[in-house]
Amino acid sequence: QVQLQESGPGLVKPSQTLSLTCTVSGGSITTNYYYWSWIRQPPGKGLEWIGYISYSGSIYYSPSLKSRPSISRDTSKNQFALQLSSVTPEDTAVYYCARGEVVHTIWGQGTQVTVSS
User: Fold this and answer.
1) How confident is the model at residue 101 (pLDDT cuts 50, 70, 90)?
2) What's the CA gap between 96 and 20, in Å, rounded?
3) Phi and psi (nearest 5°) for 89?
4) What residues contact 112, with CB distance under 8 A and at least 6 apart?
5) Mean pLDDT (whole number) for 107-116
6) Which among 100, 87, 113 is positioned nearest to 20, based on CA atoms?
């Protein structure tokens, strides 16, 4: 079955860029018509959708994060990635990758990212 696994640094300094990778196994990220999302949950708050990249490579971001996120993919490695620029302590959260555009049916286990100097 399809599995997702997040990886990346757990600690990022303010003003730097957060970089995470999601490795997908058991299925291809180019399979019609799947979408691959990044979602986060700050401590004590609800889930916040960040954006997605589709099977065809189209990308859409949440307007709330303005121009800070960047999502890309490496089809040769069956991975997709998130970069979030100019981070602040408010970006501290558990970050998840998931399959789905609006309804997310398969999730990674999540990775804690803390923004602190």
Assistant:
1) confident
2) 10
3) -60, -25
4) 10, 93, 94, 95
5) 98
6) 113
